[in-house]
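Prompt: Have a read of the protein record below and flag anything odd:
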Amino acid sequence: MPKSRIRKKGDFTPPPAKATTINLSSGRGWVAPLMLALFVVGLAWIVVFYVTTGDMPVESLGNWNIVVGFGFIAGGFVVSTQWK
């Protein structure tokens, strides 16, 4: 039976490195401050409601103040999807 030919493999050369640059001037500098502000306002709204036993921030809303606070927090999560 004849021997098979042996193919010589070349040395491994890694592919050229891709240049990774981060473009910080994409116009989204407002996202992080707004996101954090919404989180803080929502948390503060809920804490103030509990600490004042429902007298503040808006007494006429009653327990709906909790929903308003979580609405601010949810808004922060929605804004966070725009963060790059």
In short: The chain is about 45% helix and 0% strand. The radius of gyration is 28 Å.
